[in-house]
# Entry
Amino acid sequence: MEDSLKPALYVVATPIGNLEDITLRALRILKSADYIAAEDTRHSRILLDHYGIQSRLFSLHDHNERNRRVAISEFILSGKSVALISDAGTPLISDPGYHVAAYCREQGILVIPVPGPSAVISALSASGLPTDRFFFGGFLPVKSKALREELEHLRLVTATSVYYESPRRILDTLAAVAEVLGSDRRVVLGRELTKTFESFYDLPAGEMIAFLREDPCRQKGEFVLMIAGATESKDDIPQEVLSAFRIMLTRLPLNAASALCAEIFNVKKNELYRRGLEFARDAEDHEPATESEN
Ligand code: SAM
# Structure
């Protein structure tokens, strides 16, 4: 008989490929939980059988989690423990569980993380890209316009950006990266992490497309797409200079404000002038519509 757990929702990370990647604590909690809520019960059975875990399983996926959240919370409030797992990695990270975890917290129920693998962290940790700051965007949009808009946001992002991507879409996505961010933007792909064919490919976006095309095997499996941050160009103007420039613009015409700011801070007048025009355009776009008088 396993130790009983205190009543709570346990959010338990499971392997992303290699079955050895599970913590001792995760195994103990999965063994002791009254119930395990799994994204796909048949898929999770393989892992649970491997470790001789016999706790009762029920399914919790995108299509039923809103309906099941009340029953799960009542179950925990009645003194039971529920472990939440997904098909791979950490639940809620591009996986089901958010509605249940949020609802349990709202009800004052303990929600306890049991940390372990996640593809985003595994990929980043071995990519060789800067990790001091990063942005994780989940899955990129499928539709071409939305995909390009999302990538547009990365033009000036200096942190590393990380996305999940499917083998079916990887070439199209890389083509969009090359088009929007430039074919020389550095990209690192983490493929089949922790599995037999684990690979890291580190190339400029344009070359990465040719490299994957050369050998269709390189397009197979699961991918984490990491996009290096934008490098600051010579024309970039520090934020504090822009703040001062904005103040000058409230008192001086654009040309005079640009000249004065350029002289004080030793930055390019033309670039300031261009930014000034952008500020004016943005201000017009955001001007509230005039309310009609009653
Ligand atoms: N919750 C999971 C986590 O914590 O990483 C992610 C689940 S999400 C539905 C699945 C996506 O994660 C895949 O399409 C792939 O982009 C990425 N992924 C999962 N396992 C991976 C692996 N072993 N190697 C590379 N990417 C992986």
